[in-house]
Amino acid sequence: MSKKILLAGESWLSHTTHVKGFDTFNTAVYETGEKWLKEALEKGGYTVEFLPNHLAGEQFPYTMEELNKYDCVILSDIGSNTLLLPQETFTSSVRKPNRCNLLKDYVLQGGSLLMVGGYLTFSGVDAKGRWAMTAVQDVLPVEVMTIDDRMEHCEGVFPSVVSDDDILSGIPKEWPYLLGYNKTKATVDSTTLVSIDGDPLIAVQKFGEGKSAVFTSDCAPHWCPPEFLNWEGYIPMWNNLLDWLTK
C-alpha cells in the first residue's frame, strides 16, 4: 500500500489590468505549481493529495484523526494565515481549532512535515508567511526569520552538498542553479545536508516521535528553473527525502 502525502499550497489567482490608451480591460487566470513535485513523488510510489490554497483554508484537516490519514504533510508556498483564519473565524468570530498547533502535535506524535520554500512559506514576501509566529516553528529544523526572508538571485546560485548522509544517495554531487530561496538559520540539533550561499537548502531533524525537513527554495518556477526541474537528481532528491521522513 502506497504512503499518502498531503501537499497544501502551490496555487494562485492572477488578476491583470491591461491599459491600451484610453481603454482598459481585465483578465484573470488560475494557476498551480504542484505538478513537478507531485509527479516526482508519484514516480516514487507515493500517493499525493493536492490541496490548493483557495481550498486549504476550509479543507485542511482540523483534527488529529484527519491528519493521521497522511504519512507526511507538505506545506509549499502557503501562508500561515490560510490555516489560522478559517472563514467562520474571520467573518463571524467563531472559534475553530488552531491547525498550526495541530501540526506541531502531529509531528511530535509520529507524523512528518516538509516545508518547501516560496513567497508565502517560511517568512516570505513582506514577511507575510509568518510561520515563525506559529507552533509550526517548534517542529522545523531551521529558525524562520521575522522579516522578508527572500534571497533573490537572478544571476543563479548553486547549492553545495555539505553532508554524506544517505538521504543524498544516488544524487549527483553537482547541482544546477536556483534563482532564489528563503533565508533561514539551522537549529542547534538539525542536520544541514545541502547549503545555498551559506544558508540551509535542505535540513532535517527529529522531533519527539516524528520528523521534519525543509527545502528552502521552490519546487517550481520561478526560483526553480527548467535546468533544476529537468535535472536527473530532481526526482530522487524528493523521494529520498520523503523516504527518510516516512520510514
Q: Please give the count of helices.
A: 8
Structural class: alpha/beta
Helix coverage percent: 10-25%
Q: Predict the CATH topology.
A: Rossmann fold
**Main sheet record:** 8 strands, mixed
As residue ranges, the low-confidence spans are: none
CATH class: Alpha Beta
Give the number of domains.
1
H/E element sequence: EEEHEHHEHHHEEEEEEEEEHH
How is this structure best summarized?
By secondary structure, this protein is of the alpha/beta class. Strand 13 and strand 14 form a beta hairpin.
Walk me through the structure.
With 247 residues, the protein is an alpha/beta fold. The chain has a single domain, classed as Rossmann fold (3-Layer(aba) Sandwich). 23% of the residues lie in helices and 34% in strands. It has 8 helices and 14 strands. The strands form 4 sheets. The protein has an 8-stranded mixed beta sheet with strand order 4-1-5-6-14-13-12-9, sandwiched between helices. It has a two-stranded antiparallel ribbon with strand order 2-3. A two-stranded antiparallel sheet has the order 7-11. Strand 2 and strand 3 form a beta hairpin. Helix 1 crosses helix 8. The longest helix is centred in the C-terminal third of the chain and has 13 residues. The chain is globular, with a radius of gyration of 18 Å. It starts with a strand and ends with a helix. The model has no long low-confidence stretch (mean pLDDT 98).
